[in-house]
Structures are given as structure tokens and as C-alpha cells.
Amino acid sequence: MSIRGLKKKQPKTFKVKIITVDAEMEFSCEMKWKGKDLFDLVCRALGLRETWFFGLQYTIKGMCTWLKMDKKVLDQEIPKEDPISFHFLAKFYPEKVEEELLQEITQHLFFLQVKKQILDEEIYCSPEATVLLASYAVQAKYGDYDPNFHEPGFLAHDELLPKRVLRQYQLTAEMWEEKITAWYAEHRGIARDEAEMNYLKIAQDLEMYGVNYFPIAQNKNHTDLLLGVDAKGIHIYSINNRFSPNKSFEWSAIRNISYSEKELTIKPLDKKAEVFKFFSSQLKVNKLILQLCIGNHDLFMRRRKVDSIEIQQMKAQAREEKARKKMENQRLAREKQLREEAERAKEELERRLFQLEDEARQANEALLRSQEAAELLAEKAQIAEEEAKLLAQNAAEAEQERQRLEITALKTKEEKRLMEQKMREAELIAVKLVKESDRRAKEAEHLKQDLHEAREAERKAKQKLLDITRLNYPHMVKYPQYLPTDTRDTNFDKGSIKLDLKDIDLKRLSFEIERERLDYLEKSRKFEDRLKELKSEIHALKLEEKQSGLYS
């Protein structure tokens, strides 16, 4: 067979792009493939065995439609594009996620899809619940909280809360992160699959979880109701309330569901009960509703039957896998705990080593300071010793000076006493001199008086002699040369004798008075000189005594 013949026999293919919640894949499909062939290929690529929950969704003319498994892909009304895009999504939801979702990949795909629906506000969630769900999402993504690694701002680029919640409360991104981190820190030790399962267990209790809503009307003219299809049954809602249904039909109570054009009929199991009829906007909507009803009803009935061998094997494998993961998680937790303990011990040892190094450094610094202090003290001791010697020398000199001052003081006292005695003697001499001066003055006054009396007596004697001479020798008064010599001489000799005697006494008296006056002046001068000397000595002694007192 030629190479050209092999090329001709190769089947024709077309490209499809499969978009999951977190990835994209491209496949080449044969032209004859049915929807189930493409779906099985995707499930094998994902490693998914719980295929009954999922489907391939595409959008045509603004309406979301699921790819039919029993028809060829190209025979269905799909977008004309290359590659053809399909979204691999959960089509049916379990009643109890913990019991029905067996594979980890199934849990992960449901977790991502439900999380996206909550963030896109397709499922309403209270603000408190959104914060708790966000904390489990963070635990699933980042693992255990570590304050040293998960610093403030590490959630800045993660979308964790619906925009409605962010608008409802005037909180900053840092405040929301603080609230989420407070819950996140409580989930320590929870593995990723456990965190995702806890997320789904909380989400499955929300009123809008797993419900597909379709606008319907009780007549052909008005669309004033919503029909919801979920894992438990069919529910009728008012147009403004998607939380509390006005009427519900459980799958176990429905006998038949059928449609004719735009009309869809629900027949209860109880034949006496009223048949519910409603109208949709398009025939395609009724087909989609019927498709979802059939799938959910089949799953509802299968849950209440004995599990098939495949399901039993999957559950057994899931239990073994959970046990293995649990043991593995426990082992990892122990290893992590041991590693953390080792790290803490290492940190403690490093801290202790750093502390010891610091203590050693401080001890060395203290030793250096002690050595410096010792050297300084030695210098101070030497200086103190020298100062002590100097002080001892000064003390000896002070003692000598004190003794000298004592001797000087004694001498000064003795000299002072002698000086006082001399002063007293000088005062006595001065008093005596004053008295003597007064006495001499009085004597001089008496002598002057006697001299005056003597002179007066002489004058009187001379006058008397002249008077006598006139009377006896009148003619000789005018001519005393003619007096008789003898007579004259005789008489004059007598008088002369008396006069001479009187003159001699006067002269002698005058001489004595002059001599005594000179002696008095001489003594007064000597006494004044002595007084000056005494004053100088007393002044010098007072100055020396003052200086001695200040020095002491």
C-alpha cells in the first residue's frame, strides 16, 4: 500500500477547544464522532470517572445549551467556528457532596464552579458566609497560615468576595483581608481536598445552590414566574424571589413530565392532584427543561437504589484513598510538626547561640571595661598615693607651721604682753610727764611771777635810791661825777652789792628755768620717738597676728 493511499484513508477531523473552570484543552475529533465520544475523551484527559455529573455546554443565539450525547457533534446546532468551543461544566448537582463526590478531581471541579457562581452572584450568599467560604478557598490555595510568609497584602490579587458584598460594606481591602485571615488562621492542618469539601458542604446549604432557573408563565401572555430544577425536584418561584419557592414537586412525587410546543405539563404521582401546566418562551427552553428533569430524576432514583458494582468499587477506592490520604496527611502533619519543632529548636538554639554570643560580647566588653577601670584605678591609686605622700608632707609642713605659729603665737602673746606693759609704762610716763609738765609750768609761772616781783622790787629800789640821792646830794643829781668818791663809792658799793646779788639770783634763776625747759623738750622728743616706735611695733604685731589667724 502506498503512502498516498494511507493518507486518503485517514479520517477527517475538526478541532474543538474544551474550557474547564481553570484550564483549556484542544482536541482533534473525527467527523463521525457523537457527543459521547468527545465527552469520554475529555473525561479520560481529566482522569474523571464520575462523568454523570458533567456535560459539555455551548452558547448559540444567546442561549446556553448542552451537547447531546447520542447525536453526532456536527449534526447538532453548534457554533460555526474553528476551533469549536465547549465548556466542561457540572450539569447536575449531588444532594450530599460529602457522600456522592468520590474523586478528588470531581470535588475540585465542583469547588471551582460553585466558587465562580458565588463570585459572579449566580448563587446568593450572605456576607458572613462569603468571608468563611473565602477563608476555606485561601486554605485550599495557600495551605496553612504562616504569619512570617503570609504578610499583609498577600491576598491583594485574589478575588474572594462578591462585588455586591464589597459595595454593601464600606471596608477597605486591608480590613477584608484581616477578617478573612482571622478565619484562615483557624483552618491550620486542613488539607486542600478537605478545605474544598468544607467549602462545598457550606455552599450546598445555600438556597440557590444547584438550581437552574427558567422564566415561565401560567398563560401564554405573561411571564411572571420562575421554574427551578435541582437535585431534589422542581420548584416554582415568584419573579422577584429566588430563595423561597411558592410550590415544589419532589422527584418521588412526579409521575410524568411532558411538553407540547411551548407548553410543559407536570403530572403528580397522585392522580387526584392537580396537573401543573406552564408556558415557556421557546420550544428549546422546554427541551432543555425536560433534559435537566430527566437527568436529575435518574440521579435521584439511582441514589435510592443499591449502588452498582462500579460505584461500589469507586466508593471503596475513595475510602481507601481517603484513608491513605488521611494517613499521609497525618504522616505529613507529624513530619511538619517535627520539622516545625526542629525549626523552633533550631531557632531556639540560634537564639540561645546569639544570646550567648551577645553575652560573651558583653562579657568581653565588660572585661575590657574592667581592665580599663583597673588601669584607671591603678593610675588613680598611684595618684592617690602621691597625693597621700604630698598630703603627708603638707601635713608635716602644716604641723611644723602650726608649731611655729604656736611658738610665734606664744612669742606674740609675750611680746604683746610686754608691749602692753610698755604701753602701760608709756602711759604712766606720759601721765607723769603731763603731771611734771604741769608742775614745771606752775613752777615756771611762779618763777616768772617771782622774777616779775624781783624786777619790780629792783625798779622800786632804784627809784628809792634815786630819791634818796636827790635828797642828800641835790647838787650831785645833775652832776654825779662830782660826788665824793668815797661817799659815792661806798654808797654805791652797798647798793651795787645788793643789786649784784639780786642780778646774780635772777640770772641763775633764768638759767635754771631755761635748762629745765630744754630738758623737758628733750625728754618730750625722746618720749614721742619711743611712742612712735611702740605704735609701729604694735601695728606690726597686729598684722602678723591677723596673718597667723588666716593661715590657721
From TrEMBL:
Keywords: Cell membrane, Cell projection, Coiled coil, Cytoplasm, Membrane, Nucleus, Phosphoprotein, Ubl conjugation. A 1,2-diacyl-sn-glycero-3-phospho-(1D-myo-inositol) binds at K68, M69, D70, K71, K287. InterPro entries: Band_41_domain (IPR019749), ERM (IPR011174), ERM_C_dom (IPR011259), ERM_FERM_C (IPR041789), ERM_helical (IPR046810), Ez/rad/moesin-like (IPR000798), FERM/acyl-CoA-bd_prot_sf (IPR014352), FERM_2 (IPR035963). It comes from the Eukaryota. It is found in: Cell membrane; Cell projection; Cytoplasm; Nucleus. Pfam families: ERM_C, ERM_helical, FERM_C, FERM_M, FERM_N. The keyword Zinc-finger does not apply. Transmembrane segments: none annotated. One of its GO terms (molecular function) is actin binding. PROSITE patterns: FERM_2, FERM_3. The keyword Plastid does not apply. Residues 311-464, 517-544 form a coiled coil. This is Merlin. It comes from Galbula dea. The lineage of its organism: Eukaryota, Metazoa, Chordata, Craniata, Vertebrata. The gene is Nf2_1.
